[in-house]
Design goal:
Number of strands of chain C: 2
Radius of gyration of chain B: 21 Å
Number of strands of chain B: 0
Number of helices of chain C: 20
Number of domains of chain C: 1
Largest sheet of chain B: none
Oligomer: heterotrimer
Helix content of chain C: over 70%
Chains: A mainly alpha (about 140), B mainly alpha (about 500), C mainly alpha (about 500)
Largest interface: B-C, 38 and 36 residues
Largest sheet of chain C: 2 strands, antiparallel
Structural class of chain B: mainly alpha
Strand order of the largest sheet of chain C: 1-2
Distance between the termini of chain C: 25 Å
Order of helices and strands of chain B: HHHHHHHHHHHHHHHHHHHH
Structural class of chain C: mainly alpha
Distance between the termini of chain B: 27 Å
Strand content of chain C: under 5%
Mean pLDDT of chain C: 84
Low-confidence stretches of chain B: none
Amino acid sequence: MWGCALHPEQFYTLSFLGVFVVVGLLFALGPLILAYMLAPYRPGRTKNETYECGLEARGDSWIQFRVQYYVIALAFLIFDLEAVFLFPAAMVLRERFVEQSLSLGLLAAVEIVLFVAILAIGLVYAWAKKLLEWN
Amino acid sequence: MVGASELWQQMRYLMPEGLLLCAGLVILLFDLVVKKGRSLYPLAMLATAGAAALALLPLESSEPLFFGMIQSDAFARYFKVFSALAGFLVVLMSMDYKPLPARFVGEYLGILVLALAAIMLLAESTNLLMIFLSLEFLSLSSYILVGFLRNDKKSKEASLKYFLFGAMCTAVMLYGFALLYGASGSLDLPAIKAAFANRQNTPLTCLAMLFILAGFGFKVAMVPFHAWVPDAYEGAPTPITAFLSVGSKAGGFAVLLRVFFTVFPGLDYHPYWLAVVGVLAVFTMTVGNVIACSQDNLKRLLGYSSIAQAGYVLLGFVVMDGRFTQPAVMIYLLAYLFMNLGAFVVVIVIANTTGQEEIDDLAGLSERSPLLAWSMFIFLLSLAGVPPLGGWIGKYYIFATLVKGYLEGLSGGNLMLWFAVALAVNSVIAAYYYFRIVKAMFFEHARERMARPVVGGPLLTALYVSLILTFAVGLWPQPFLNWVSRMALPLL
Amino acid sequence: MYLLPILVFVPLLVAVLLLLAPRSTSPNLVRMVALVASGLIALWSLGLPLSGARVDYSIPWFSAWSWSVNFSLVADGLSTPLILLTTILNFNCVLYSVGVIRKSEPAYYFCLFLLEAGIVGTFLAGDLFVFYVFWEMMLIPLYFIIGIWGSEQRIYAAVKFFLFTLAGSIFMLLAIIVLYNQTGTFDVAALAALAPRLDPVTQKWLFWGFFVAFAIKVPLFPLHTWLPDAHTQAPTAGSIMLAGVLLKTGAYGILRFCIPFFPAAAAEAAGFINTLAVIAIIYGALLAFAQKDLKRLIAYSSVSHMGFVILGCFTWNVPAISGGIMQIINHGISTSGLFLCAGLIYDRTHTRQMKELGGLADPLGRLTGFFAIMMLSSAGLPFLNGFVGEFLVLLGSWKNSVWLTVFAATGVVLGAIYLLKMFQAGMLGKPAKSEYAKLRDIGLRESLALMLLVIPAFWIGIYPKPVLSVVEREAAKIEKTMSTALPSGTSMIEGRALWAVADERDVQD
């Protein structure tokens, strides 16, 4: 159990963990420390703006958002995910058809269609429930 | 390379969950068309009953399916039947659950049916990724269902707490998966097992096991990952509470059994396993039972009781012996399914009558509705493990497993006997609070103007089914025992 | 062949029928059904071989993964008298209750019949698993009887009773499972041969696992605290069943399982247990002496009298053991009689406080007569049943330890004192209230119920041979087990009861 002394092999395994922790910390803190040491310190009004370009930020950011923002964002995710999954699928589909069997390619195509269909149901659902109307 | 026709052939093993997934989508679509949500109930009942029937078909494969993602063996089939059956009863219970807004019945049923499919997938996944996906599928559906009473503050709070807690536990579990992957170089459970064969127990694998236990422990409500249980149970719509306490928990135990039996079967892991799981199990049941004693809300009380019950089942895991652990856990879960769902049926009737779910609302139930009072009494007796009811058979086999482990000289044997003693002590504590409810029902008198509860058809059906099966598992356990031992995972 | 299962399942069936009876069923019908059914069951139980011959019945129940359970029932010389006692007392209870109980009657008789089924099953079980099922089954109905139909503090008493007994039995369950795994069987007869061969350490643990459960039920000092509450708060029928047979299941368990299965451990523990028994005898008697409540007094007298049972069972010679068994039966008769009388008094005066009673002999002549007989039988007056058991126990115990016997004998004297005091306070003297003069004496039904107890009390007191010969055969079996198990060099005492001297041959086989 825990009581057992560390076997050399176990020590070897654990040493990876140690190295991982040290390197990870260095990786995260190193640039910060470097920046602190090297960067010139010249604060100013413009410097303290939230965004350095674009519209000027006004008011407090701690306000209530309409919950509909999230709904719309979710609906957006439908398309977002679709694209993420469709792209690699499209890349290999041709390969499937040409290099492997026709049936396997068809199966893959059908699967993609099903995937899109299920996502579409989500969209239809949101639409029919009037979640996309901004009022 | 697996051919298309073969993949098509493999699809038939997924018929129950396929049916449920389709049904879930169809229900969601129908919800857009039909105006009355109630007409969707028959559809959901048909889907769950159909899934149960399909899962009962002897379609099993000992080969890994879908590129090793899934193994649809007898063990998985057991949990498919289990979850479809639980789903059917939960749908029945929902039909007469008043607080459920009629407008959203479609969404509710759709998500519920999808969650059932998630449990099925969880029970048959043999790949860490697939396990994670099904677990998240189940969790996300549950979060929504728990928060389904939108206008109820408690429900919203429950959902948020459940979500935050679940997210944390899942993250830890994912870390465990990553460590396991790092240690073995594969995500497939059989490959991980092969990688660990003849290798010593390293700190890395121990850490991975612990982290994974966090994720699964969250699902089965194991201490210290139980904190969400009381609030989520209290806030959730009661049928969903019942679902969480039975379906979701069974899913957790299924994946726990599969992962720990396929990946860590060697006795090499045994002492470590024994100490960690055994102590956690004892903590789980003690915490659950002791806190339950002071609860006045029925749902909270049953919530803590379900934590304690998870502790009993976990004790079955302490003996990592394939011959006994699995059947004991499986028969316990089966008995637990009926007795716990039955208890929740009564809670729903009470809530429908008085509008709340306190123990006081049960006062004098034996005068107002003897049927309900005696049924509740039977369910509580069974939960307390009094013979000759289902829960008693379950508890007996957990006991027997521990004693067997002790006598067969498995390492840490003495500890096992102490675990058995802890289980015995806990049974007495549990009897105390179960009998608090009995006391209210039989010994106290109804308050003035307490209406006589009316039980509608669906609830009555659910009540009778639970009641008959609670008795059946206890009085005539042979067919259930045979079934369970046939459905256990093959020994490694 | 179906003699035994009918004894268990008919009460169960009647119980379920009563529970399922529609609400509109007339109470008279319910009472009739209960009375007839319980009478028939009592008659049926007379079909058991009264010679104490062995009858058995067995069918497989379930088996899985190397655990198999048979539903087997066995009646022999030890269980037959106790079963008769159970069925007769049940009839007695129903007979009494039909005139008194008016609150949810179907449920009440359901509980009584379920209790009967549980107790009969406990005495009949020929398989440890079955034994445990019935053992737990008796808890539930009595819990309800106390909790629903009891007096003021009933809920507290019911919960205390339930938790105490459950705590004991759950450890017995653990012991049963360990025992099964060590020997591979639940069968009591087979275990009696196999279990004594286990190693001493295991035996010791298992012995205590069983013994604690039984000692709580008996109840043995210091585990007795649930008893006075349960007795005092229970309705009369509950007290009768509790004192009459429920406590006996504990003593029966000791004689049936603890001693034959683990003789070495029993021999080792005997000194300690006997000391506890003697403490129980004196302590119970002293506490009984101090009680103001009639039922509480009888309850403490039970603690004292059951001490004799334990003392007898753990003294390894035939007179003591047979005395112990006789005391089990006798206490069942006398104490239920006392509780029945106390109940009848309470029904009339609505008080259990002895200082609010008194002078009842005048209006309640017949009841006073029965009460006097029961009181004297409990006090161990010769020619009444109580004498036989206590005498044999003291006789056997004398050869074992003079000091224990002397102390135990003081219990008899104390018993006579507090019982007489109780009788005097309750029935003699001046009436505490003037309206007592108008009380109605017991009628035919109640007299019949009391006669059912008085007749065996006289019968066993005057001519105990038929019962004693059965009992002594059982005692001889236990003594034989012990004499083979005890280390050589321990001389076994050749003791014979006065009545048994002529029956040497009976004892030999």
